[in-house]
Design goal:
With 166 residues, this protein is mainly beta. It contains one helix and nine strands, in the order αβββββββββ.
Length: 166
């Protein structure tokens, strides 16, 4: 079993190496974004073809080096085209004026079947961001970029950020 913070070990050593007895973590801040109302509405918002569209943002007031930000979300999508579509989901950190591919902290490719064949999906995301410097008003933004037309953000949409102090 491997985890991000260690080089690996046998299962019997896991409990000793990962015990939380002496390592207290606490939730310091919680921010969220949802649609209003946060329900699926057919053809609510069409996503432009081959354009990164910001669809959800959260801002944490103050983060400190060594903190963790636990990001979670769900995004209801619908493909009304007769072809399978791919949607690229990205999370950007900070407040860029332009979202530049390659500078994201998270990237997932979502395949949505054609109209009438599992063409409505609710896609999850989960990511942990390790804070490497103190910052104020740190924003995380989710963008969606479909490879064709007739792809809609129908909802529900929920995007959360939990700031964890270690």
């Amino acid at each position: 079993m491997m985890c991000r913070q260690c080089s690996g070990h046998k299962d019997k050593d896991w409990k000793d190496d990962h015990s939380q007895k002496n390592k207290q973590a606490s939730f310091v801040d919680f921010e969220f974004f949802t649609l209003d109302p946060n329900i699926s509405i057919d053809n609510r918002f069409e996503l432009p073809e081959d354009v990164q569209t910001p669809v959800a943002s959260v801002t944490l007031d103050e983060v400190k080096k060594g903190n963790l930000v636990w990001l979670n979300g769900v995004f209801g999508l619908d493909n009304d085209d007769n072809n399978v579509r791919e949607v690229v989901m990205r999370i950007f950190k900070g407040s860029p004026l332009v979202f530049i591919p390659g500078q994201e902290i998270y990237l997932a490719r979502i395949e949505i079947d054609d109209e009438g064949n599992d063409d409505q999906v609710v896609e999850p995301l989960a990511h942990v961001d390790v804070i490497d410097s103190n910052d104020r008003n740190l924003t995380y933004t989710v963008t969606l970029q479909p490879d064709g037309d007739d792809v809609f953000l129908n909802g529900p949409v929920t995007f959360t950020a939990v700031l964890i102090k270690k």
